[in-house]
């Protein structure tokens, strides 16, 4: 796995949340297990990775040292206006929010151009 490995969880230009790789493929549970990243259902509305209370545009950065992944998660999506909608970027290594967003924009340029980097209101290591 390279230092710049990036996954995205959220709405990909339409309603519905999915964990996807840079080429747009859906990451299934068995692959998430192999990569040691959270599954879709663990990211969707996560009490662990998302800041509380739910405020569109607010995000949090969490570093997982046991697996060496950084997760930038935030509330809201322009593709799905229902409540409790969230997105997450998962990047290998320990990176700050700005670097996480930069790597996401490089791996998912079309998607990143339609989203806004969240306001970081929490940072943690678990």
What is the strand and helix layout of this fold?
Elements: E1 6-11, E2 17-20, H1 29-35, H2 40-43, E3 58-64, E4 69-75, E5 86-92, H3 97-107, H4 109-114, E6 119-125
Parallel strand pairs: 3-6
Antiparallel strand pairs: 1-2, 1-5, 3-4, 4-5
Describe this structure in words.
This protein is an alpha+beta fold. The chain has one domain. It is 22% helix and 30% strand. It has four helices and six strands; from the N terminus they run E-E-H-H-E-E-E-H-H-E. It has a six-stranded mixed sheet with strand order 2-1-5-4-3-6, covered by helices on one side. The model has no long low-confidence stretch (mean pLDDT 90).
Tell me briefly what this model is.
By secondary structure, this protein is α+β, with helices and mostly antiparallel strands. The protein is 22% helix and 30% strand. It has one domain (6-125).
Uncertain segments are none
Q: How large, in whole angstroms, is the Cα Rg?
A: 13 Å
The N- to C-terminal Cα distance equals: 21 Å
Output the strand order for the largest sheet: 2-1-5-4-3-6
| % residues in beta strands | 25-35%
Output the helix-strand order: EEHHEEEHHE
Q: What would the principal axes of the Cα set say about the shape? A: globular
Sheet with most strands: 6 strands, mixed
Q: How many beta strands in the DSSP annotation?
A: 6
Total domains: 1
**Average pLDDT over all residues:** 90
Q: Structural class per helix/strand content?
A: alpha+beta
**Portion in helices:** 10-25%
The number of helical runs is: 4
């Amino acid at each position: 796995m390279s230092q710049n490995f990036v996954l995205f969880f959220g709405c990909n230009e339409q309603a519905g949340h999915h964990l996807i790789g840079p080429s747009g493929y859906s990451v299934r549970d068995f692959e998430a297990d192999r990569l040691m990243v959270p599954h879709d259902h663990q990211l969707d509305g996560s009490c662990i990775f998302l800041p509380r209370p739910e405020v569109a545009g607010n995000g949090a950065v969490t570093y997982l040292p046991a697996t060496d992944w950084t997760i930038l998660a935030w509330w809201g999506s322009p593709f799905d206006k229902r409540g409790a909608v969230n997105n997450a970027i998962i990047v290998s290594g320990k990176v700050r929010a700005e670097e996480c967003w930069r790597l996401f924009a490089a791996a998912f340029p079309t998607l990143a151009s339609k989203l806004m980097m969240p306001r970081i209101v929490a940072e943690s290591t678990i």
